[in-house]
């Protein structure tokens, strides 16, 4: 039987249970309040971490670099990129250059500053320091600083010198990769190739050049290319340089005198016209005036100390002498050893075909790295063919290649002896010497207008009734052989090419010297008899 009251109560109870299972809005309000409270706490904590300056927080990369990142907090070493590491190393190397100077000075001029031998505006100039060049200050003397820079020591004016902290700060901008020359002379070339035709300049020992690039065996500098075998590349400041080569040749003289004669100026033992002749100054040769006397200069020129006329017709001094010297100073190979091998090619594997001695200064034809080509003497081949090239090594400091003036050579006229034979030989020598300074002309036979070596000896002997062929090889077969220990003035001395063929002849004048038509550059001149190795000596006079 349906019970209405019971059914009603059952439905009421179900409705109450459903209502109790629904979400009460009051709970939502409570949860929202809790979330807001947590947010306020977090925002407050972040605000406390911000820098007082208001700058943005460092990025992770910045935090690593300045030590504030997580790695730093954990005590781990910071990590640099390859670029950062290279920059750090470069900065350290540059600073090491600056620190290598105990008392750094930086020159502040628009051109260059002279380095002088003494602390005076009149002091002899020994080198130059270009603007921004660095030096080591050794001491200060009033308005001058005693410095060393690039192998040059001397004095510079304090007026143009930065020192102390200013110098170090300036130096930081000036340290660059530079090629520092390690050879006495190094060719600067237009292209990176060992071609004598592309030489455009010379670099000297210790000079520094900014490096543009490098390739195998070569360094490109702003001026051209140099061999990497004779230069070290490193971070460096620019430093001083020795004087221009021609200026160096002239500045070695404090009181320069130049001979103005066409051939030779006699150097005498005493200051009088009949004083004994002890030497001869070649045309435009230089000397140092030691003393000025009435009508005479006491001079030192080469190995000779003696007297020459002070007549301005024959000698030049002052600016005139300097002007002549600048025009005539030429590149010479000055030999520093008693005997030096001459080779046919610039290689130690090439044949040694003669030897030369230090009594001579040899004209330089070309410079190669480690070698120099010199002019020995004339070409006297029957067919006029080119003579052998002559190369000498500069690697062992046996040769000083520099601009130089001619200087006096030792010379004493042959004594006129009592015997007719000796008298004849003396006359031959004195006759030959009057043509010294005249030109060399290949194939020529004129003692005044030009002769080659065999033409010269042929014409000299012809004046004394001796007939000789016009070819050195044929002259070497005339007369009879003579030992070097027995040779006398008037004998002929012969020299050969690399094949052993005679190609040059000279007339012995005594005292270990010869007179010969040497070359187009030298003309008829006096040399040491063994200026290169003789191959034969002949007596063609028949006595």
Automatic annotation (TrEMBL):
SUPFAM superfamilies: Cysteine proteinases. Residues 422-543 form the NlpC/P60 domain. PROSITE patterns: NLPC_P60 (PS51935), SH3B (PS51781). Residues 59-92 are annotated as: Disordered. GO terms for molecular function: cysteine-type peptidase activity. Transmembrane segments: none annotated. One of its GO terms (biological process) is proteolysis. This is SH3 domain-containing protein.
């Amino acid at each position: 039987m349906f019970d209405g009251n019971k059914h009603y109560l059952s439905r009421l109870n179900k409705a109450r249970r459903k209502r109790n299972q629904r979400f009460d809005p009051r709970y939502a309000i409570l949860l929202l309040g809790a979330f807001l409270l947590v947010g306020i706490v977090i925002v407050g904590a972040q605000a406390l971490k911000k820098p007082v300056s208001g700058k943005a927080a460092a990025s992770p990369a910045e935090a690593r670099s300045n030590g504030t990142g997580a790695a730093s907090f954990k005590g781990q070493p910071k990590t640099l990129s390859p670029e950062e590491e290279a920059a750090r190393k470069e900065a350290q190397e540059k600073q090491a250059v600056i620190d290598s100077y105990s008392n750094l000075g930086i020159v502040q001029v628009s051109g260059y500053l002279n380095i002088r031998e003494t602390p005076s505006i009149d002091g002899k100039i020994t080198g130059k320091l270009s603007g921004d060049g660095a030096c080591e200050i050794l001491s200060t003397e009033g308005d001058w600083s005693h410095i060393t820079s690039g192998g040059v020591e001397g004095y510079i004016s304090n007026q143009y010198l930065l020192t102390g902290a200013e110098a170090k700060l300036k130096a930081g901008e000036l340290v660059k990769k530079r090629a520092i020359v390690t050879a006495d002379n190094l060719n600067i070339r237009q292209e990176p190739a060992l071609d004598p035709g592309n030489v455009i300049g010379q670099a000297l020992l210790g000079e520094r050049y900014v490096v543009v690039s490098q390739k195998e065996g070569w360094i490109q500098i702003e001026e051209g290319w140099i061999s990497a075998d004779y230069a070290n590349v490193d971070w460096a400041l620019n430093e001083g340089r020795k004087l221009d080569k021609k200026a160096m040749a002239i500045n070695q003289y404090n009181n320069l005198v130049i001979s103005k004669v066409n051939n030779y100026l006699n150097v005498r033992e005493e200051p009088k016209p009949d004083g004994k002749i002890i030497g001869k100054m070649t045309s435009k040769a230089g000397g140092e005036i030691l003393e000025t006397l009435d009508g005479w200069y006491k001079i030192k020129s080469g190995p000779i100390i003696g007297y020459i006329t002070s007549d301005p017709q024959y000698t030049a001094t002052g600016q005139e002498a300097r002007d002549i010297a600048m025009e005539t100073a030429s590149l010479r190979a000055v030999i520093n050893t008693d005997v030096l091998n001459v080779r046919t090619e610039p290689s130690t594997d090439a044949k040694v075909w003669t030897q030369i001695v230090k009594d001579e200064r040899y004209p330089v034809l070309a410079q190669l790295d480690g070698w120099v080509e010199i002019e020995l003497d004339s070409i006297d081949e029957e067919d006029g063919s080119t003579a052998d090239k002559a190369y000498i090594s500069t690697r062992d400091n046996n040769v000083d290649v520099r601009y130089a003036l001619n200087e006096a050579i030792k010379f004493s006229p042959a004594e006129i002896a009592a015997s007719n034979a000796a008298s004849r030989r003396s006359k031959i020598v004195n006759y030959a010497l009057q043509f010294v300074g005249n030109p060399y002309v290949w194939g020529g036979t004129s003692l005044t207008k030009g002769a080659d070596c065999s033409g010269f000896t042929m014409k000299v002997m012809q004046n004394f009734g001796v007939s000789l062929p016009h070819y050195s090889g044929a002259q070497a077969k005339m007369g009879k052989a003579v030992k070097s220990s027995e040779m006398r003035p008037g004998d002929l001395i012969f020299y050969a090419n690399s094949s052993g063929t005679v190609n040059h002849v000279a007339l012995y004048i005594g005292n270990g010297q010869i007179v010969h038509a040497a070359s187009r550059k030298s003309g008829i001149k006096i040399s040491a008899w063994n200026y290169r190795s003789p191959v034969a000596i002949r007596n063609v006079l028949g006595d």
